[in-house]
Structures are given as C-alpha cells and as structure tokens.
Amino acid sequence: MACYNWKRLHKSFREIVLSPLRDGILIPLTQMKGTPMKVTKRSWLGIAAVTVAALSAATLTGCSSPASSGSDLTKSGNSTLTLWVDTQRAPALKTVAAQFKKDTGVTVKLVVKDFATVDQDFISQVPTGKGPDMIVSPHDKLGAYVKNGVVAPLELGDKAAAFAKVAVQAVTYDGTVYGLPYSIENVALLRNTALAPKVATTFDGVIANGKAAVAANSATVKYPFLLGLDPKQGDPYHMYPFQTSFGSSVFAQNSDGTYDPSKLTLGDDAGLKFAAAVKQWGVDGILNPNITGDIAIDAFKKGESAYYLTGPWNVPAIKDAGIKYAIDALPSAGGQEAKPFLGVNAFFISAKSTNKIAATKFLVDYLGTDAVQEELYKVGGRPPALTSAYDTIAKTDADVKSFGDIGLTGVPMPAIPEMASVWADWGSAELQLIKGDGEPTSVWTTATTNVAAKIKG
Amino acid sequence: MTALLVKIVLLGILDALAVYALFIMLGLHQWVPLAATVLITGLVNWIYLGRGKRLPAKYLTPGVIFLLIFQVFVVLFSGYIAFTNYSDGHNSTKEDAVSSIIQVAEKRVADSPAYQLTILDNGGAYSFLVTDPDGAVKIGSADQPLKVVPNATLDSTGKAIGLNGYTTLNLSQILANQSAITAVRVPLSDDPSAGALHTDDASAAYVYRSDLQYDAKADTFADSNNVVYVNSGRGSFATADGAKTLSPGWKVDVGIDNFVKAFTNQQLSGPLWRVILWTFTFAILSVLTTFALGLFLAIVLNHPRLRGKKFYRVLVILPYAFPAFLSGLVWAGLLNPQFGFVNQVIFGGAHIPWLTDPMLARFSVLLVNLWLGYPYMFLVCTGALQSLPEELEEAARVDGANPWRVFRSIKLPLLLVSVAPLLIASFAFNFNNFNVIYMLTKGWPRFTDTTFDIGSTDLLITMVYKVAFGQGGARDYGLASALSILIFILVAAISIIAFRRTKALEEIN
C-alpha cells in the first residue's frame, strides 16, 4: 500500500470528515438525552456500515502519519529515493544505501526489475509520476530516454576527470552529461593456450592457427574459430570489431566522440568490403549462423575450438571448466585497428524526480567512489569506469586488465535513438551473407537503404 | 446474524476504500473517476442494503463490475489510444514536454569554473553564497545578480559558509526543499546572455546558458539564431516549414491517422496485407489439421476392442501438458539447421533451414502448432464420440452402411453439433496465437522490402506486439492499438458468421 505523499490528504480527511462527524453528529447525539431515537434494524445496518467505513478509512490514511511527524524532510518531496536495479547488482548496493541513510537520513529503496525491459518501463512510467528517482541502465538506451524526456542531466563537475574518458563520452548525449558510469565492457578474443600457444597478429593468422588446431586434434577440436550468433537475427555487436578493422562504422563520429545521426556510414566502400569478407567467412565456414551463444560457449568449454570471441561475462564459466586461456585483442582482418563496441553501464536520474539534490549526491558522492565501484565489479566481473578503482582491480585481476586494455581501443556503442532503427536490418544483412545468400554489395546496400528510410521515419 | 455481520464488515471496508479513493482523486482533481466511484459505490450499497426485488442484482453485481473494469474499460481505453499519437517521443503531457525541452536546452558553459556553494535562506527566499576558484566570495539570488560580498564567514579551506543576516541551510533543510533549490537560477550579471548559476547537488554551482527561450504566451520556442519553433498541432514544436522538430513531443489526438497509416504507408500496407493473409491461413489450417488428427486419434483410440486405451490416451495428451511458450523454445532448438535433433537424427545431418526459409518456416510453425494443438481436439472429440448413442451406429450397420459411410453421414454431423462452437473458439485462439509464433520464429524470417520488423510467419498479434513494444525502431502504441482494433473486428465478424452457420447444424437433431 503506497502511503507516502498523501499526508496532506490525511490532514484534509481529518478536517473535512472526522471533525464534522464528531462535532455535527456524535456530540449532538450524546446531547440528545430527552428524545430517544427510534432505531430500526435497517438504520442500524447503515450506521454500522458508516462506522466501519470511518474506522477503516482512518486506519488507512493513518498509515503514513507516524513517519512524517516531527520531520520536515517530506515537505517538498519524499525522504525516500527509489532506484531500479537488477537482481545481480542489488546486493552490491545495500551497504552504500545504508551509509547514505546514516549520513543524510534519506532512505534509498532498491527495487529489483527485469534488466531486459527496464528501459521500456522507465520510459513509460516516468511520465505518470510513478517512475523511480534513479535507474541502472546500459548507456545505449540514453538516446531513447532523452528523446522521451524522461532523464535529467547530471553535472559530474570536476569528478568527470576521474572516470575513463570513453565512459563519460558514452553517457554524454548532444553535449550534455546524463549519467554516472560504473562499468565498461567489450568483447575480446579468448585463446585456448593449449591449442594455440602463440598470439596471432592478423585474423588470417588466427584462422590458420585455428585450422591447424583442428587438423592436429581432429577427434576433439571441431571449429577453427567460435562466435556466438543468433540464427535469426545475426549479431552485429560481436561482429563490430571485424567491421571496424575494414574502416567501416555505423555512424560518423564527431570530434568529441559522439555520433552524428545524419551521417550513416554503414553503406560506404569500407562497409561493402566488409560485407564481401563476411560472405567469404560464411562460405569458408569460419562463421556459422547455426552456432548460437549457448552452443559457442559450450564448445569452447569442451576445448572444441582454439578461439572464441566473447566478453568478460563468459569468462567465469570458462575458468570453471578448467580451460587454460589467454585474452588477446582481436587482430585486424581488414588492415585497420579492430575496435570493439564499448558498453557502459551507468546510473541515471529521472526527469520527474522530486529529490534531485539527494539523488545527485547519492550518485556522484556515493556511487562514484572506489569502494562502491569495486563492490559492483565483484558481482559482475566488469571493469569499473572509475579510473582509480580500475587501477586497483587491474593489479590483482589479470582478466579485467586484459579486457580493460583492449577496451581502450574501442568505440562507445552509439546512444542516439536512431540506433534502434539500425540493429535489425544490419543483423539480418550480416546473417544473410554468412549463410551465403545473395551478392554482398546488393545485400549490404539494401540493408543500408532500409536503415536510412527507417531513420527518416 | 453472522451473515449480516459479514455483510456489514465487507460493505464497510468497500465504502472505506471508496471514501479513501475519493479523497485521493479530489486531491488530484480527477473528476470523472470520482463521479464514477461515487455512483458505483452508491449503487452497490443500495443493492446490498435492500431486499426483495434487488435479489438478482446481488448475484450479478460483482461480475458486472469486474467485467466493466477488466474488459470494457480496457477495450475502450485501447480504442481511445488508437486515435492518439501515443508513441516513443510522444509519451506524456505537453507540460512535461515543455519542461523537458527547457531542462535539456540549458547547457553548462564550456570550460566555466565550478563555484563552491552554500545555500542561504533570507526569509523564505534562497540565496547562493558562492566561492569561485580564485577564492572570491559572491552572493546572488533569483532576482539579484551575483555580486561580491565582503565579510562572509569562511571555513578553513577558504569556502564561504555563512553571512550576517542570512541563515545557512543544513543538509536536512536542503533536502526538505530540493525542488525549490534546484529551480533557482542566479544570473551572473544584468546581461542575461552571460548565463546563470544553477545547482543539482547544493554543494557546487555551475554556469549554464540556455539555447532555447520559451515564450509561454505565444507558445513558441526560439533559439539563439532566432529560429522559431511553433506548436505544430501534431504534438510537437516544429519550425514553420516542419524541417526541424524539438523533442520530446507530447500526446495528442490525431483522429483516424493511425488507421490511414496502416493501409497507406508504403512500408506498412504491403506487408500488412501479407500478414493478414497468413494469419487467416495459419488460423484455418491450424484448426483443420489439429481437428483432423485429434478426431482420427479419438476414433482409433475409442475402438471397443483396443487394449491399453488409457495408456495410449495419456501418451497422446502429453504435449497438452507443456506450456506453449516452452514448447516453442524447445522446438526452436530441435529445428536448428545444423545442430537440431530433427536434421541430425531424422534427416541424417542434412541442413534443412526449417525456421529461416520463408515457406519452410511457415510449414514448421504449422507443424509445431499441430503438435501442440491436437491433444485438445483429441480430448474434445473423445468426449463427444462417447456421448453419441451406440444404437445409431448399430442401426446404420443393419441397414448395410460401411464404416466410412457411418462416419460421414452419422458420426461427423452429430459430432459437429457439439464441437463446432469449440472449433470457432479454436480459430479465434489461433488467430491470436502469440506464443507459438513468437517463441519459435519471432515472426521471422524478415521481409526484405520493409523497414518494419515484420516477417513471413508474423501473425497480426505478433506484429502488433512488435509495433508496440518491439526492439527495432520506435514503439508506436497508437498504431498498435489501431491494429488491434482491426484484429478485433476481423475475429468478431468471423465468429458471428460462423456461429450463425452452426445453428444450421443444430437443426439436424
């Protein structure tokens, strides 16, 4: 039962209903000594019902009153901050929430939500006034938040310099910073050191090593290279380092690292070269559309491949399976540097929060600290966005350091809302090519035209 | 007596909730729901406190109220949404949109310094006492530009923390007045273009300047280059030629635009007709195939001389015990072209693209739905068959009819009398069979000639879902509602026609 925010109503209820009830009915009733009222069964029923009603209503409205008495915290807002968070991160935030309560008297309520749909809930619930004060979200949803007017700018001030530059870039939209970043994630090439002891310098070298491993252990090793794909929609996210190594990108980047939605670069010459290469990899069986993410990690855990392109989230399972691995940057396939997409997880404040000062304090002064960022690293294994926390962890965790160093070469995933129009066509074009259907130039150009039409609306 | 007591308590609780709700609605100025609540609560009290003639109403009321809330209201609300532009970028009120545009337009002046801030209270008005990076102390308020102030109290770091004649706010006072404090803008000087100080955390203030000025009277925004954005009447601020639009917009009524869009938008209308055609094909074929298989198995397993009937029946009903969405996911794995059980074991390692070739995907969907749906038909037909009098069959045999003739002319017509309404229900269910499609193929493989995320196996309902909540592109609740009204009309029309026809069947008796 949501009792908060209704103190005023409670007061008016007392003034408008309870007092007149007392002054106008109960007191006169007690004073009417001389004239006994004729009370029928029917009117008893009515009186009883009214009494029960009054009592229950008083109880209901009363549920908020003890908390508010003697405190002026609630005058213009709530003394509670609500934060939408997922199950994994919630435990890591309990300590800092308790500390915040102790320091400021403001309770931070952690509400666990499904991470996959939290962005949609946020967009639809903030306008109703029922949304949270804060939310944890991947940065690529930021564009949609801004477009819907549900997120408030966050001034990091001097603290901005304490975060990795790409992380701040990722939570910046149209020149304004909106979020407090806490982790950076990207894909890298995992190498089974028993099967491929040496680092390859080109992607062709990777394939050669991978094939050599298959040839040498044909009984157990089945695939030269693994990449989890969705057999229905492809996976442009994992494919992006390949694409950038051909010099191709989705949108052109401005000088400050943000993307320009008016410049769709997907279909340029570099993109077409990449498309041709994708088809060739499909024909050669390097990329296989039927290998889903589940099949890929399972195969790598069983030692069925020397190479696996994946992110830090899959490393613990591989470690548990007893595979000896090394983490390399994906070598270039097209001649230029292979830049993976960077995903930044960040905390954002709702545009309709009535607790902006408390929320800003909690994010910047409490969540933007080494202790909290390290705590969050412990539950997710993702490199922290706060540079000092990252440095501390990188000293003890070699995997985080490897992923983090490779991430330095990466580019943030575009947060512009136009990106939502890109994924589907982009993925199905890649998938079509991997399957060997169609001519690369026409498939790629059709997809680009579709994307451009979608962006135009 | 107990019954009376229970009645009093329950009615009392209901009235209490109603009274409580009234006060909340009063506070929020929600007049229509308020009137409705008064009316309904009054009616309920009147019905249950009376006796005699009101008896039937006592039984009907709860059902009718729930019907109104959970069916009628939802239908009407969807209907209303279909006539608005409710979508991504138009998801709130104009008031929200304006405040959001203003908020976002305000940007921190590049490379401007951070001012250390103390908030002072001067009889209800807030002043900013700031210390700039050079150590100079200044004071200002919303209507008093920043000016240097001498004799402020400094702390050990040189930050000004107090001033004579003003009260310094402590943290809990600040937190109690957050909205008022974040709303304060302290001009740097008399020249408004110099920018204004503003704080989000009450410990530091920064200089902001706004790119856009809102003119509330004219209801327009103007930017620094004097480009004017006017209310376009379509739920957004746009330049007069419509070239540039400010976001976000807000929700407005757009009449029948969504319906027009569904049939005239080039990206949508072609695929929409294909989807409608496939939806009918899927629903009709699903009913026919499941009914045929279910009936066949029912007849076979109903044979008097068959042994172990119960065992077989349990086996046949098993697929019915699985949740449909789970089956969809399992089948998606089984039908994987390279690693799926079907290709590996049954087709000896052939790479048949069950779910990725348009026609094969449609076939696979029908096949999986047959697997999911025949147990229901089997159950229904078994029940109906067992209720047919055996004398009829014996009489026909005596007259020399062969088993096929008995089935064609006697059993099937009698069966249809009781089963036909269920077939219509099954049609309506399959017309909206979201689970199978979404879990098995997600509606893909995609059409290549449209920018919408629509594919060969999409039913109208999955298409509606994708338009409303899909990942690819903006979510458009208005359009989705319009499409769901279309579904409603189609299903209702077919059901009415079909039920009329079944009356003819009943005349056989």
Fold and architecture overview:
The complex is a heterodimer of chains A (457) and B (509). Chain A has 457 residues and is α/β, with parallel strands linked by helices. Chain A has two domains: 80-185 and 343-412, Periplasmic binding protein-like II (D-Maltodextrin-Binding Protein, domain 2), CATH 3.40.190; 188-341 and 414-456, 3-Layer(aba) Sandwich (D-Maltodextrin-Binding Protein, domain 2), CATH 3.40.190. Chain A is built from 18 helices and 15 strands. Chain A has helices at residues 7-31, 41-62, 65-68, 90-104, 118-125, 142-147, 165-170, 203-216, 236-245, 269-284, 293-301, 315-320, 356-367, 370-380, 387-396, 398-407, 423-434, 440-456; strands at residues 80-85, 107-112, 134-138, 151-152, 172-173, 176-177, 179-185, 188-192, 226-227, 251-253, 259-264, 307-310, 325-328, 341-350, 411-412. In chain A, the strands form four sheets. In chain A, strands 1, 2, 3, 4, 7, 14 and 15 form a seven-stranded mixed sheet that branches. Chain A has a four-stranded mixed sheet with strand order 9-12-8-13. In chain A, helix 10 crosses helix 17 (423-434) and helix 17 runs antiparallel to helix 18 (440-456). The longest helix of chain A is centred in the N-terminal third of the chain and has 25 residues, at 7-31. Chain A is globular. Chain A starts with 6 loop residues before the first helix and ends with a helix. Chain B is an alpha+beta fold. Chain B folds into three domains: 2-81; 96-210, no CATH class; 263-506, MetI-like (MetI-like fold, Orthogonal Bundle). In chain B, 56% of the residues lie in helices and 12% in strands. Chain B has helices spanning 2-28, 31-49, 55-81, 94-105, 171-176, 178-183, 257-264, 266-300, 309-321, 324-334, 341-346, 358-387, 390-398, 403-431, 434-440, 460-469, 477-506; strands spanning 106-108, 115-122, 125-131, 137-141, 144-148, 153-154, 160-162, 167-168, 186-187, 196-198, 204-210, 212-215, 220-223, 228-231, 237-239. In chain B, strands 1, 2, 3, 4, 5, 8, 9, 10 and 11 form a nine-stranded antiparallel sheet that branches. A four-stranded antiparallel sheet of chain B has the order 12-13-14-15, covered by helices on one side. Chain B has a two-stranded antiparallel sheet with strand order 6-7. In chain B, strand 14 (228-231) and strand 15 form a beta hairpin. In chain B, helix 3 crosses helix 17 and helix 13 packs across helix 14. The longest helix of chain B has 35 residues, at 266-300. The interface between A and B is large, with 84 and 76 residues.
